[in-house]
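thread: overnight batch results

M.L. [08:02]
morning all. the overnight job finished for the chain we discussed friday. pasting input first so we're all looking at the same thing
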Amino acid sequence: MPATIGQPLRRKEDLRLLTGGGRFSDDVSLPNQAYAAFVRSPHAHARIGAIDTAEARAMPGVLAVLTAADAEQDGIKPIPHTPIPMKPPADIALKNRDGSPHGYAPHPLLAPDRVRHVGEQVAMVVAETVAAARDAAERVAVDYAPLAAVVAGKAAVEPGATRLYDDVANVCIDADVGDPAGTAAAFARAAHIVRLDTQVQRVTGVPLDARAAIGTYDPASGRYTLYAGSGGVVRQKRELAAILAVPESMVRVVSGDVGGNFGTRNAFFPEFGLVAWAAKRVGRPVKWTCDRSEAFLTDYQGRDQAIEAELALDADGRILALRGAVVCNTGAHSVMYVPLVKCSELLTSVYRVPVAHIRARAVLTTTPPTNPYRSAGRPEAMFAIERLMDLAARQLGRDRVALRRRNLVAPREQPYANPLGMTYDSGDYKGAMERALALAGWDGFAARRRDAKRRGRLRGIGLANYIEATSGAPREYARITVRPERQVEVAVGTLSSGQGHETSFAQCVAEWLGVGFDEIRLIQGDTDVVPVGGGSHSGRSMRMAGVVMGKAANEIVDKAGRIAAHLLEADRADLAFAEGRFTVQGTDRSVDLYAIAGATEKGESLPEDLRGPLQAVCDEIIPVAAFPFGAHVCEVEVDPDTGATEIVRYAAVDDVGRAVNPLILHGQTHGAIVQGVGQALWEHCSYDAESGQLLSGSMMDYAMPRADMLPSFATELSETPAPSNPLGVRAGGEGGTTPALGVVANAVVDALAGYGVTHIELPITPEKVWRAMRNKGK
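M.L. [08:03]
and the structure it wrote out:
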C-alpha cells in the first residue's frame, strides 16, 4: 500500500454529510418521546419569589412542570465544572495574590433563588408536543424582584459593584503571574514605554446545528442515556453521573455528528442534565432542541477579556519587560478559567522578553458563562502584543518588521522559557515570518497603496506573529480491531466536529498496518464503546490520538507477527512485515492481517493467549503540550467616506509540526481565519450596560462573516516536527484564528495612519473607522 500520511486525500465523510447521511443531535428521535421547553428569565439579575405552575400543569398534553425545588427534592446536583482542569502557571494554580483560595460560582440546572443572566432557566415543562410545552411554559408565573445588572468585567471589580452571590466574591481569581519586582526594575531603566488599554469583545460560536438532547431512563436497570452532540462524551458521562448522583456505570452518553463546536460545546449544559432527569420523572424519553434565539441567550460564549499592557524597550528597540493586567469576564457561573490562564501565560508571545508580570483576574458578571472558544486566550494575547509591537515601532520611529526581527526568539534558544511560566518546545519564528512576508508580497505593498490612493481608497498592511499552547485533557484511548471481513475498526476517545477525523485517522492507521485507506472504520461518540478519552479541544485530537493509535497499531503488528509465525510454521525473526502481510523471508509463503484475524477468531492450533479478536488497546496519559506558531499578513482597503473596510489580501504561514492531511489543514486554516476576521470586523455579543439585556440576539443583530465578504487566502504549511509526540504534530485547527485579530487591526490602523489614528477597538466597524478619521485619532 502506498504511504498515506502527508497526502492531501479528500475527506471520506463528506459524501455522507453532504447528501443527508449525517446524524446530528436533532436527528435522534425515540418511540414515545415527550418534548421539553424552558421558562427563561427575562431579567439579567433578579431574586426569584414564588413560581406558580398550576395553570401550566393543567394545560392539555402537559406531563410535568419542574422547578429547582423538584430538583433539590430528587437530589439533583449542580454541574461539576472544573474551571482549571489543566496545569496553569503556578501563580494562578495555587492561590490569589492575597493568599486566599480561588472563588467558584456554582451552576445549578434550574435557578433556585436568583437568576444571573437573561435566558437562565427557571422551570422546565415536559409535554406531548413541542407546541404544548412552549404554550405551557408561557403560563408559568414567576415572581421576580429585579436587581442591578453588571455586564462588563472591569465594572464587576469596582468597589461597590453589584454582587452576584452572597458567599462568592465577584473576583474569583486575582493572581500575580511572573516577577513583579524584576519587571518594575526593568521598566525603571527603559528608554521607551508603550501602553495599550483594550477590550477583546465577547463573541459566540454560532455552530451550524444548534444544541439538542434526548434523555432516557430504563427503570429495569436504573440506567440513564443521553444523546447529545458535544466536544467529548466521556466528560459528559462523568459530569452527568455527578449531577444525577449515580455511579458512572449507570450513565451512557452518545453523540453522533456534531455540526461545529469551536469550544462552545465542550462544557456540560444544564439542559443535558434536565432531559435525563425529566425522563425518569415522566417515564418517557424527553427531547429538547434549542432554537437560534435560545442559543444566542444560553450557549457558552467566548473571549471578553480586558487587557492593560505596557512594553518597556531600550534605546535600540530591544524589549526589556512587559507588564499588564487581564480581567476575564467569566459570566454568571464558573465554567472555565482557561482563557484567562492561556492569555496570561502567552502574552510575551514569540518575542524575547527577559521579565514580565501580569495581574490575572477572573470575574463574575450578569451575562452567560464564557468557555474556551477557538484558541482560547491566545487570540487575546496575540492581539495585545502585536498591537504593542506596532505601537512601539511607531513611537520609536522604527520599521515594524525590523523591530520584530530584533526581538524574535531564535531557534538556537529553544526550548525557551518565557517569563510567564511557559516553556516553548521548538520553532523557527523568524523563518515563518519571512515566509509570510514573501507570500504576501510585502515588498510590493507601496505600489498597491499608490494604486488604491488613485482609486480613492486608503490601503493598509498588517503583520502578526503568534504562538499557541495546545494541551487539553491529558488522557486518551484507542482500540484497534482487525476484522476478517477486511475491515479495521478504530475506536478513539476524541470526537470530530468537522475536523475530518474519519479521514486523517484512517490515513495513519492504514499506513501503519499496511491496509487500504477505505478499509478503516472510525468509531467514536459512545461511552459504551469508548470508556475513556478527552474529546476534541485545544488542538489535542490528532496529537494525542496519534500517540495511542500508533501504539495500538504496533501492538497489532507484534501480536499478528506471533500468530503468523504459528500459521506459517516459521520463526518470528524470519518474518518480514510489509503492506499488511507477513512473509517468510526468501520464500513466497505469506499471510495477511485479515487472514490472521480470521485464524485468531477460530482459534485453530493457536496458543490460548493468541486466540480471540485481533485487537489492541492503548490508554495513556500524555501531559506534554505542543506549540504551533506562525505569521499572518493582511491587507485592507478603507473607504474614507463611509469607513467601510474590505480585506483585499490575506496570507498565512502556519507551522503544524507535521501535516497528516495538508488538504484538511488548509481548510481548517481558512475556516479559522474567517472566525478570527469575523471577530475583528463584525461579531459582538453586545449587552446593555444598565439592563443586562442582549442586544445582538439574532442573525439580524449578530453580524457573521460570509463568503462574499472575504478574498481568497494564500496559505502555506510549515512543518517543524514537535518533539512532544511521535508523529511530530503540533495542531493546525486554531492557528488561523490566533493572530487574526491582531493582524486585521494592524492593517486597518496602518491604513488610517495619515489621520493620526493609533488604535481602534474591536470589532472595527465602519462607524468606528469613520469616527476615528474625523476625530484625527483622538
